[in-house]
Structures are given as C-alpha cells and as structure tokens.
Write a structure and sequence with these properties.
This is Iron complex transport system ATP-binding protein. It comes from Granulicella arctica. The chain is of the alpha/beta class and 258 residues long. It is built from nine helices and eleven strands. It has a domain of 144 residues: 3-Layer(aba) Sandwich (Rossmann fold), CATH 3.40.50.300. Helix content is 31%, strand content 26%. It has a six-stranded mixed beta sheet, with helices on both faces. It has a three-stranded antiparallel beta sheet with strand order 2-1-4, with helices on one face. The chain is globular.
C-alpha cells in the first residue's frame, strides 16, 4: 500500500519567512501518530503542507507525494483527507444542523448550498457517521447552539463522512473543558481501534492516545525527533523540547505532564 505522505527536503515559507526547514517525513495509511511541539514551532504549517494549503519552496531535491501522487486536484484530495482544525465553525456552519453539517463534508462546503445534489446514499452514510461518533442526539440541533465539545464531535463526523483515508486533527482539544476533552479522547480512541488513521497535532501531552505509538517532535520549524512514544515521552526530552522543567506521569496508557 502506498504511504499517505512522503516529504523530502521540504522547506515552506509564510510570507517572507521560512517556517519549515528541510522536512523529511513518511507516514503510512492507517497510522496513528502525534506531532508534538511548542506553539509557533511549525506544526500547523506542516498540516497545511499536507493539505496543499501551503506549498514548498521550489528547490533541488524537494519532493512531496500524497497518497502516491505528486499532483492533485484539490477537490479530489479533500475527499480523501478529513481535516479538523482548532478554529470554531464559521457563520454558515453554525446555522446548519448537525446532520446537514456532516452531509456538507461530501462537498467540502461550509453548509448545504441549494445547488448541491444530495443522494440517498449520502444521507445513509451521514446517519452511519452520526451513530459512529455517538451524536444521534445532535442530528437536528444547530451547530451554533452546541457546546464546544459537541461542535468538535460534529466536525470530526464531517471530516469522516466522505470515507477519508486519514483524519488530521490540529489542536483538537483547544477551547474544551476537562469533561469535553475526555469525551473527545475516548471518541478518537474508538475511531483508532476501528482502523481510522489519525494524525494529531498538539502541544498537550494528554492528547496523545494510547493507540499512538509514534511521536514526532518539532521545534523552530524542524523535526528534532521521530520515534517510538516510549522513547520520546520522557521528562528530560520534554523539558528540552518545551524549554522548561517538565514532570511526567502515565496512567491508563495516557501521559500527563505539568
């Protein structure tokens, strides 16, 4: 099976500033991994490079391959990548019901516009996803009336509905209280056990699921470590990464740092 992602010597600029430096990375389909690092280290830019929102500088030796292809129609690529950002849903999405918000994932749109054609198969799939993410009670509720945790759950469903091969989550527990964070992690655990590939970007150690055996560490736009979770999630490595003293505790497969 072709890998989900293969990057060679990738450098990415935002404006006049190079924010990713010589990134070399391969990620397999169905893999569960976390990308960890302090704010501003380039994690979100790396996600945007994977989704072709940001493009590498043209340099000798640079290569980007996504699902085995170097060129994509972005509309087609979005159907294979389920992306959940840390941002709150937009104005149009907030006025949409949970069911319609999930249906909009088939079209990568903010809501169901009148020109879109919805098939019975799409509706059946959306109902399956509502059940899969344990959100049947949110079917007819407007997204804007939901709690932050409920909104995040619906956005995950929206990302999954088009049979996405990989789920990419950028700081998914942002703005969630402790109860909502726990519910989110349990949902992601269930998806991982069902075979959904998950790539998680975070600066919170507790977001890293027990099912994630691989961790990448980033700092100042570079990958500074890539390996098994047990080797990298240590107090000394985390203290170096975040440039502060870190203490670590493990419970039920989750790591907690303070």
């Amino acid at each position: 099976m072709l890998p989900f992602l293969h990057l060679e010597h990738v450098n990415v600029a935002r404006g006049d500033t190079v924010v990713l430096h010589d990134i070399n990375l391969s990620i397999q389909r169905g893999e569960h991994l976390a990308i960890l690092g302090p704010n501003g280290c380039g994690k979100s830019t790396l996600i945007k490079t994977m989704t072709c929102e940001c493009y590498p500088l043209v340099q000798p030796g640079t290569r980007v391959s996504i699902f085995g292809r170097e060129r994509w129609d972005l509309t087609e690529l979005k159907k294979k990548l389920g992306v959940v950002s840390a941002e709150l849903p937009g104005k149009q999405t907030r006025r949409t019901t949970g069911f319609d918000a999930i249906l909009s994932g088939f079209f990568s749109s903010s809501t169901l516009w009148p020109n879109l054609t919805i098939t019975p198969e799409m509706k059946d799939r959306a109902n399956e996803v509502l059940e899969q993410i344990d959100a049947l009670s949110l079917r007819n509720k407007e997204v804007g009336e939901m709690s932050a945790g409920q909104q995040r759950r619906i956005m995950i469903g929206r990302a999954l509905v088009g049979s996405a091969d990989m789920l990419l989550l950028d700081e998914p527990s942002n703005a969630l209280d402790l109860s909502a964070q726990r519910d989110l992690r349990l949902l992601l655990q269930r998806l991982a056990c069902q075979g959904t590939g998950i790539l998680l970007i975070t600066h919170l150690i507790a977001d890293i699921l027990p099912e994630m055996n691989r961790v990448l560490m980033m700092r100042e736009g570079r990958i500074v470590a890539d390996g098994p979770k047990e080797q990298l999630l240590t107090a000394s490595r985390l203290s170096s990464l975040f440039e502060t003293e870190v203490q670590l505790h493990q419970r039920d497969g989750f790591y907690h740092a303070w």
